[in-house]
Amino acid sequence: MVRRLVGFYEYGNALADLDQLVSLANEEDLEVIDEIISDRGEFDVYLTLPDKFTPQSESYSTSGAVSGTRGSGNEFRKSGLAWITALARVEFGAMVAGFTAEPNPFKDVTPDSHDYKSVMQLLMEGVAGHYSGLSKAPQFAKKGRARYKDATVQVALTLSRRARIARAMMAPLLAPGPSEYNPAQAYELAGYKSKLDEGQKRVNEDIKEFLATRRSAGTTSGTRRFVEGCASALAGERRELAAGTATVKRFPAE
């Protein structure tokens, strides 16, 4: 399925070519490349980080909202090869996380990569954005439950996939350990992780209950394919557990 996504091949091929370019370039070459990119506004990257992770360095260029971009008062404009590859790496990894069985979609994000800091900041923005959206969904935030109608369980499947993507993005952010963050940031990250894990478990339980109601019932071919999609989502969780990239947390019954 992932190969059908618009941008999958484009991001993958761009990363392969640009990473090879970086491996062949020296510091002087990279400076020239960044100068060329800085003259092309279409290659600018705009990011809006959570308040606790807002950079204080003067190296960040602030910018008001421009046509086609978000405006929040906490928006930063960045330019350069590292930001181009970082954006491609995050988008490509998100596709892999949401539509494949790969348990560690961001395994290439390491301190050795030339765009590591840029990737980490884009991942933080991604996690915060997904968390904000998911927390407003009643089914995810325990403000409502699936009633086992196809349309409602389709929402659960969408929420489950989005939570998987956000949790995959969390992995590189948590890898350095709490010591890499100030107390407020470490607390914020822990909160994201706890709520994402809890919400993922909740919507997966709804999917499991839906599957249980369908096992003995006759189904159309369309419903059968939908049930197979539910099973695929749960199978992804089991693969993550087996690979050690996910854990099970038990929450007390209310």
In short:
The chain is mostly helical and 254 residues long. Helix content is 58%, strand content 4%.
What does this molecule look like?
The chain has 254 residues and is mainly alpha-helical. The chain has one domain (2-243). Helices cover 58% and strands 4% of the residues. It has helices at 8-24, 27-38, 81-99, 116-135, 150-174, 183-214, 221-243; strands at residues 45-48, 61-62, 75-78. The chain has a 3-stranded antiparallel sheet with strand order 1-3-2, covered by helices on one side. Helix 4 (116-135) packs antiparallel against helix 5 and helix 6 packs across helix 7. The radius of gyration is 20 Å and the shape is globular.
Query: How much of the residues is beta strand, in percent?
Result: under 5%
Task: State the shape.
Answer: globular
Task: Calculate Rg over CA atoms.
Answer: 20 Å
What is the residue-mean pLDDT, rounded to a whole number?
A: 82
Instruction: Please estimate the helix content.
Output: 55-70%
Regarding quaternary structure, how should these chains be classified? Answer: single chain
Return the string of H and E elements: HHEEEHHHHH
Biggest β-sheet: strands ordered side by side in the sheet: 1-3-2
Through-space gap between termini: 38 Å
What is the β-strand count?
A: 3
**Regions with pLDDT < 50 over 5+ consecutive residues?**
64-73
